[in-house]
Amino acid sequence: MAAYYIFCMRFGLVDSLERNAQLKTYDGVHWHYESWDMDVALGNKNDGGIAYDPPIDRNTKLPGSITTYAFSGRSDNSDGTRATSNWLWDALEAWPYWANTIVPKVANALYNAGLTYDNVSSLFDNEYASKWCEIMYNVSGYYKYILSGNSDPTWLSWLQGSRMTHRHWWLSNSMDYYDAKWFCGDYKNHRIYLRANVTEGSNVNITIYPNKNAYMSVEKDDIL
Hints:
By secondary structure, the protein is mainly α.
């Protein structure tokens, strides 16, 4: 459960928490998720087009909207009150042990098992994207979003080519954010050391201004 949640958050799989996945077993003992419709990811919204900068979570709303959330299964009324929300993910996110212990531990285990930005980008670029020339993206998009859509112009925003540059940027920022949030992965490999001469008993205030939405941790005298 936690692994699938992490997968959806890191990759912005906005249509996969509520649907487009099955919990399956082939032997009655080992269970796993099987997903589909995973072109709705990395900043895409459900009805087509890139809409979200990284990172996103279940509280992210469609830019300019007061009712529509990025992830399916949650919506608000026009007065700001909650209209719908998935009770399972609501309950898990509200459970401190899930948020502060289970998810970070699983996220770190996944990182150690190979779920890193470098590995994911290499897999996307070398094992999939590079197997298709640009004309194949164009032909595929033409068939799927123009011919199959009966020339409906609302499908044109799905014609995005390989998205390699955008994919690198989006995934890098999302992975960095969640590494920091869950204190795992590559986040622990980057530190800034501050040393100062301070008179004993004096008060020192240090203010840090991040250049983007981020989590940070501070360690003082070997205490995190």
